[in-house]
TrEMBL record:
Similarity annotation: Belongs to the aldehyde dehydrogenase family.
SUPFAM superfamilies in the cross-refs: ALDH-like
GO molecular function: aldehyde dehydrogenase (NAD+) activity
Pfam family, one: Aldedh
Source organism superkingdom: Bacteria
InterPro entries: Ald_DH/histidinol_DH, Ald_DH_C, Ald_DH_N, Aldehyde_DH_dom, ALDH7A1-like
Protein name: Aldehyde dehydrogenase family protein
Length: 509
């Protein structure tokens, strides 16, 4: 257990804190506006209050971010990387404190909260290194004495809208790449998890102050969506990166897409399946499915929600899963022994209960868990449901809760059809020791998802890879690989150094 007050004071989080910030010394005021509560999902208590960002706060943030972009875009990219690197260093210095804030906000276990802070630190290292490698190709011109290459230039102001489940890592994956690309960043986190954003903004402020910048990283946390929508609709924002449900993602795409020239990047719902064939190491499969399903209390967009298992090994796998589910310690996230904490709020418990009762009504059998745990806070049992049909609405829909549906298959082709037969397309997995089966799953007629894992769980994407998915997941990519290109614009350059004027398409005058 940590001391909450000590953690809050480590990050200068007052009992009522400003909900917007333009940079060092740029916090909004608190006395003249209503404040909303940051509620600890572990016990329902109020940790602190945040004076929700107003329209005026938003405008101040946007004016600063827009003005700063004019300067930041001309700062050499490796220098931009140094700012990101410094933020990573500060996060490492405050590692335990930041993890505690993430746990207080989300209810995820300290173990997982530390994992999330680790991901932020790693992402800072990746982005700082990437800042020296914003490569463009050099091409061969078909004209004599011409040089041709492409270069990558900043977009402008990048707006980041992040969900409650990863209040630090998702911002880092987007914001650090945006910043090294010469963009300034306006962050709108979920009001369910304001403390992590406040803590990180304080660290950003320290780093910006040390290096003589302001407004590279800015923040506004409105209580409701009205002010948040201003960011989505604002023509001064070049790119909106949105993480959240497909329903809201669709609205973001509609609004941003209605102005040509603005961009959106979506990381929306997942409904991640794991195929287990008859040659799989079932012990390994049970372990990775358990972590994938119950980790972060099933509140990851990459959580394993569907297990598609070869009929011959289904009973054995279900027994192993029951055994490993039984070992999961659900409890207060502040307790270091806890593996799985509560759901984020009462509404999430309601969604859990509705999904379980829909599955039972349709004919599913709850073979583990299925109920809320009666204690203060929003705790539910890790839940395993068998005898499920792939087309049931509860199976087709993403419920942010630790529920895994088990379905049997006979042929791998059928398994892939079930696997791909959902609207979402984020993460996927196969457990197998049959090379042909693995390669079929990875082929053009295999998994239709953005992420495919072999003999691994669907969660815990390696930041070195591009992160994102297809179909209703939205098509965006962030984190590693060449995802940095999504935060920059490509310019194809052609230079005539020969002093003559050769026309294209071999036209000679
Ligand atoms: C999310 O759940 O919205 O790979 C994104 C993972 C996490 C997912 C974060 N990095 O499981």
């Amino acid at each position: 257990m940590f001391d909450t007050q000590q953690v809050l004071s480590e990050f200068h989080i007052q009992s009522v804190h400003g909900g917007a910030c333009t940079g060092p010394d740029g916090w909004s005021t608190t006395h003249d506006r209503s404040a909303f509560a940051a509620i600890n999902p572990a016990d329902g208590t109020v940790t602190a209050r945040v004076a929700g960002a107003t329209e005026q706060d938003y405008e101040a943030v946007m004016v600063t971010a827009s003005a700063m972009h004019m300067r930041w875009r001309m700062v050499p990219a490796p220098r931009r990387g140094e700012l990101v690197s410094r933020i990573g260093e500060l996060a490492a210095e405050h590692f335990d404190g930041l993890a505690a804030v993430v746990a207080l906000d989300t209810g995820k276990s300290l173990m997982e909260a530390k994992g999330e802070v680790r991901e932020l630190i790693d992402m800072a290292a990746l982005a700082a290194g990437q800042s020296r490698m914003l490569y463009g190709f050099t091409q061969q011109s078909q004209r004599a004495k011409h040089r041709m290459y492409d270069q990558w230039l900043p977009l402008g102001v990048v707006g980041i809208i992040s969900a409650y489940n990863f209040p630090a890592a998702v911002w880092a994956q987007n914001g650090f790449l945006a910043a090294i690309g010469g963009n300034t960043v306006v962050w709108k986190p979920s009001p369910k998890v304001p403390l992590t954003a406040l803590a990180l903004q304080h660290l950003c402020n320290q780093a910006m102050k040390e290096m003589g910048f302001e407004g590279v990283f800015t923040l506004f946390i409105p209580e409701d969506n009205r002010v948040a929508e201003m960011l989505v609709a604002d023509p001064r924002v070049a790119l909106i990166s949105f993480t959240g449900s497909s329903g809201v993602g669709r609205k973001v795409a509609d609004i941003v897409g209605s102005t040509l020239g603005r961009r959106y990047m979506l990381e929306c719902s997942g409904n991640n399946g794991c195929i287990v064939d008859e040659t799989a190491d079932l012990e390994l499969a049970a372990r990775s499915i358990t972590f994938g399903a119950v980790g972060t209390t099933g509140q990851r967009c990459t959580s394993t929600r569907r297990v598609i298992v070869q009929r011959a090994v289904m009973d054995e796998l279900v027994e192993l899963l029951k055994r490993s589910f039984a070992q999961i310690k659900v409890g207060d996230p502040r307790d270091v022994e806890t593996v799985v904490g509560p759901l984020v709020d009462a509404a999430a418990v309601g969604h859990f209960e509705a999904a379980v009762s829909d599955a039972i009504a349709a004919g599913g059998q709850v073979v583990f868990g299925g109920k809320r745990i009666s204690r203060p806070g929003h705790y539910v049992e890790p839940t395993l449901i068998t005898h499920v049909q792939p087309e049931w609405p509860c199976v087709q829909h993403e419920t942010f809760a630790p529920i895994v549906y088990v379905m049997a298959y006979d042929t791998l082709e059928e398994a892939i059809e079930i696997h791909n037969g959902v609207p979402q397309g984020l993460a996927s997995g196969i457990h197998s020791s049959n090379l042909g089966n693995i390669e079929l799953f990875l082929s053009a007629q295999g998994s239709d998802c953005g992420i495919a894992k072999v003999n691994m769980g669907t969660t815990g994407a390696d930041i070195g890879a591009a992160f994102g998915g297809e179909k209703e997941t939205g098509g965006g990519r962030t984190a590693g690989s060449d995802a940095w290109k999504g935060y920059m614009r490509r310019q194809s350059v052609c230079i005539n150094w020969g002093g003559t004027s050769p026309w294209d398409q071999r036209i000679i005058l």
